Amino acid sequence: MSTEAHGRIVVVGSLNADLTIYCDRLPLPGETVHGTGFAVNPGGKSANQAVAASLLGGAVSLVGAVGDDSNGEMLLASTAGAGVDISHVRTSESAATGVAVIAVDARGENNIIISAGANGTLAPADVAASADAFDGASVVCLCLEVSLDTVAAAARLGHDAGATVLLNLSPYGEIPQSLADLTDILLVNAHEASLFLGSDEIPGADADDAAWNQVRERFAGRGLQRVLVTLGSSGSVVLDSLVSGTGRVTRIAPVKVHAVDTTGAGDAFTGAVAARLAAGQALAEAAAFASVAAALAVTRRGTQAAYAGVLDVERMRGTGI
Q1: Rg for the chain (alpha carbons), in Å?
Q2: 24 is catalytic
Q3: DSSP letters along 85-136, please?
Q4: Which of 18, 184, 261, 267 is catalytic?
Q5: What is the pLDDT of residues 169-182, one digit of tens each?
Q6: Is residue 80 part of a domain?
Q7: Structural domain for 76, as ranges
Q8: pTM, whole model, 2 decimals?
């Protein structure tokens, strides 16, 4: 398949400055540990997803807000430098750019605290003002780092435009049924899936198809017909109630790499899925491609600077796409 995108992608949501401290291990509650390095990098789930999708061949427009400060300038430069259309990113006069404080240990694991800043000012009015970006869009990519009202407005506009609405339910929050009804594809990790379904346990990668089929049925009962459940280093599972037979549960094998920094790996995955959906691939094929893109992202420090291009993904896969 050609690496050229067949349709445009609109990403609506957050842009953050990532303040990252590297350490041998993450501190326990009340404990102080010594860091081994510090970096300020462009981040935010939506900005990350937009950059990832653009580097992988997508034609991407980003709708968001930054502050009138150096962090905002850094984020605008990073996203635009990756080929993202930033004409719908507003500069707030009242709030500083959003910030994420991140600790990353020697295994690449992290914990993250975010302060919304200008992201908290992004409103349905901003979505309405960006309506031209949605015209003819193939995919609208959303997460929960901005207000639910804003996410719902973008989902409605994407739905009405005939786009595939891809909702990454992260950071986790309860969503109204009206938003679920507008969502074509839900992307969650195992923890988020368990919270959404009110279940104590989500099957592991080694569970049989019958167990995963029960999960699929529970999502379908909530109005979500197509769901991607990521399982970290164990790969992912595609649950698709719109197909028949064994195709309703598809397992995506993990890609084994040495993890240096897992920050933003989920965003790399989401952006890659959006890029391949916009290029006309089926959901399971897009997830397999995204698995490689996310694996490559964790082999380098940072988020956007760690994201791979199409040729990098093709090289790791060993075959074309």
Answers
A1: 18
A2: no
A3: EEEEEEEESSSPPEEEEEEE-TTS-EEEEEE-GGGGG--HHHHHHTHHHHTT
A4: 267
A5: 999 999 999 999 99
A6: yes
A7: 8-15+44-94+118-317
A8: 0.92
